[in-house]
């Protein structure tokens, strides 16, 4: 694994905007890239597959042992999650955030419900590779996997119309949503875009503003927000994508549960639901945190880094500290995508600090 530089493409901003990538200033890392060997990406693929299997086992453990209270999940929606899991509702996607320095692979967290950086991980970095390194490969079958995942879901659920919804005032969410809608249309689905506040619940059904019954909905909107805002709507009769059981995997307590079940896994950092007195270097994360908010890195008894935000009242988990690797002061985190339950590729976000948040930079990659 190496970090390299390359001259920026002429008019590259126009090129990525033509592909639907409009929120790129200071985010798309034109002029730099990471280089992997085939053996390294094979190892990332293997780790991703094993981590997803462990996450599924952890979800089963939580449901079977009724551990919802530890997850801070409201009682009103717990039966809905049970039904979602027992009905084997299909998942579209998720993203593991991994430590990787060319040797060790460690799980930081699982963005299982509303992962973004999808568009840039898929067609934007693939287009960059095709222009800059047409003879090289890339660990990236994300687009094809998404299309196939929608076909598989349609075969099982028989989708008449797929509604796609987010809070459209969030530009990044909106363009990720529209890319997901594009993959569903390529799979042959009829797709309608709506804002989350244009959906409403009535007598067991979810309805669009037009009065049309919503039977299938992809939402780029966190389950924990929905649990608090409208728990009765969570029980409406429809197929949600992501399914409600993904609320377990997007919860940071899944990291503790995975470590509890698989303490010898080479991919898991020791994780606790309290801070052991013997641990002096750790990462503290809010159970329901998002985008790097309210994360604290205790680097030594005297030194720490911490981000602000609105999370933490729900409690924290504590991971053994594993600072991001450094490539001449640049710190990458590997986003490894799971689509239709299988590894599908990676995207890399890079920061100059030790906590990856929504101000990081996306950097493409190749395989040599």
From TrEMBL:
The keyword Secreted does not apply. It comes from the Bacteria. SUPFAM superfamilies: Glutathione synthetase ATP-binding domain-like (SSF56059), PreATP-grasp domain (SSF52440). Residues 14-367 form the Glutathionylspermidine synthase pre-ATP-grasp-like domain. One of its GO terms (molecular function) is ligase activity. Keywords: ATP-binding, Ligase, Magnesium, Metal-binding, Nucleotide-binding. Pfam families: GSP_synth. This is Glutathionylspermidine synthase family protein. It comes from Candidatus Bacteroides intestinavium.
């Amino acid at each position: 694994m190496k970090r390299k530089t390359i001259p920026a493409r002429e008019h590259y901003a126009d090129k990525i905007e033509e592909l639907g990538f409009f929120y790129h200033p200071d985010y798309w890392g034109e002029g730099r890239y990471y280089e992997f060997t085939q053996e390294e990406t094979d190892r990332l693929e293997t780790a991703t597959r094993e981590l997803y299997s462990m996450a599924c086992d952890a979800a089963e453990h939580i449901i079977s042992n009724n551990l919802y209270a530890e997850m801070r999940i409201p009682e009103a929606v717990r039966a809905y999650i049970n039904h979602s899991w027992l009905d084997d509702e299909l998942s579209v996607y998720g993203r593991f955030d991994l430590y990787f320095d060319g040797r060790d692979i460690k799980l930081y967290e699982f963005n299982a419900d509303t992962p973004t950086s999808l568009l840039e991980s898929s067609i934007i970095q693939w287009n960059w590779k095709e222009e800059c390194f047409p003879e090289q490969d890339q660990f990236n079958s994300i687009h094809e996997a998404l299309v196939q995942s929608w076909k598989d879901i349609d075969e099982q659920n028989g989708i008449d119309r797929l509604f796609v919804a987010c809070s459209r005032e969030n530009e990044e969410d909106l363009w990720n949503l529209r890319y997901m809608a594009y993959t569903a249309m390529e799979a042959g689905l009829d797709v309608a875009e709506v804002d989350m506040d244009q959906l409403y619940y009535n007598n067991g059904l979810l309805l669009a503003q037009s009065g049309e019954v919503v039977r299938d909905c992809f939402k780029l909107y966190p389950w924990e927000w929905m649990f608090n805002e409208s728990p009765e709507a969570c029980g409406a009769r429809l197929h949600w994508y992501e399914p409600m059981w993904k609320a377990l995997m997007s919860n940071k307590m899944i990291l503790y549960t995975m470590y509890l079940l698989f303490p010898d896994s080479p991919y898991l950092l020791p994780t606790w639901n309290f801070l052991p007195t013997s641990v002096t270097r750790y990462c503290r994360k809010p159970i329901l945190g998002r985008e790097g908010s309210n994360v604290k890195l205790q680097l030594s008894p005297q030194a720490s880094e911490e981000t602000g935000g609105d999370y933490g009242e729900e409690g924290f988990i504590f991971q053994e500290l594993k600072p991001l690797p450094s490539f001449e002061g640049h710190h990458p985190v590997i986003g490894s995508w799971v689509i239709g339950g299988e590894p599908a590729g990676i995207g890399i976000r890079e920061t100059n600090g030790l906590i990856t948040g929504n101000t990081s930079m996306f950097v493409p990659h190749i395989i040599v």
